[in-house]
Every structure is written in structure tokens, then in C-alpha cells.
Amino acid sequence: QVQLVESGGGLVQAGGSLRLSCAASGRTYAMGWFRQAPGKEREFVAAITWQTTYYADSVKGRFTISRDNAKNTVYLQMNSLKPEDTAVYYCVADYRFPGATIWDPGYWGQGTQVTVSS
């Protein structure tokens, strides 16, 4: 069982930046982030395996995912934030990564709120 604890959410103005962090209790092959906006389904944001990163088209060029394997921690640097980025962001992890569009991670964090004001 892998436990995930997120931090770093908050309120920011449009165009601003936030950095999310997620500490895992163990090491997994893939770590990443999903988000869920009010009234919408959860959606994939970004993922990182040992050496490869994956991004949703909506965040490509603005968000950067990285990981520190020594600390079992994954980060999401979010720049040029838009009001439509407002959502609860969930850290996820799994021992497999079949692809961004079909990934159903086995481990989820509690979520952290990100609110972008216009």
C-alpha cells in the first residue's frame, strides 16, 4: 500500500504560478496528477515514469512534472495559470503506466485545492 500526501495548493491570480508537491510512502514506477473541476469528471494532467513525462494538451507548455526518487516525491510546477485550471488536484501513483489516456492509477492522495482568480 502506497500513501500519498499532497501540499502546495492555494489561491493565485491568473498568470501566476504554484508548485504542488506529493510525498509517497514508497517508490512506484509512475507518479502523476489528475484534477477535478466542479461539475466535471476527473481528468489526467501529467505523469512521469523513470525517465519520461506525459502531459495533457491543456497544460502542455505551462506545467512541468518532475520527481525526486531519493525522496519518493513528485512535483508539479504550474505556470501561466488560467481560471480554467481551478480544480482539486490529486496526486496518483502506480507500478504500471499503460498510457495517459487509459491510466487508472491504483493509489490516490486526498487532493489539494487550486483556485485561479481572473
Concise structural overview:
The protein is mainly β and 118 residues long. The protein is built from no helices and 11 strands. It has strands spanning 4-7, 10-13, 18-24, 30-36, 43-48, 53-55, 63-68, 73-78, 87-94, 107-108, 112-117.
Task: Furnish the topology, listing elements before pairings.
Elements: E1 4-7, E2 10-13, E3 18-24, E4 30-36, E5 43-48, E6 53-55, E7 63-68, E8 73-78, E9 87-94, E10 107-108, E11 112-117
Parallel strand pairs: 2-11
Antiparallel strand pairs: 1-3, 3-8, 4-5, 4-9, 5-6, 7-8, 9-10, 9-11
Question: What keywords describe this structure?
Answer:
118 residues; seven-stranded mixed β-sheet; four-stranded antiparallel β-sheet; 11 strands
Describe this structure in words.
The chain has about 120 residues and is an all-beta fold. About 0% of the residues lie in helices and about 50% in strands. The chain is built from no helices and 11 strands. The strands form 2 sheets. Strands 2, 4, 5, 6, 9, 10 and 11 form a 7-stranded mixed sheet that branches. Strands 1-3-8-7 form a 4-stranded antiparallel sheet, with no helix packed on it. The N and C termini lie far apart (about 40 Å). The mean pLDDT is about 95.
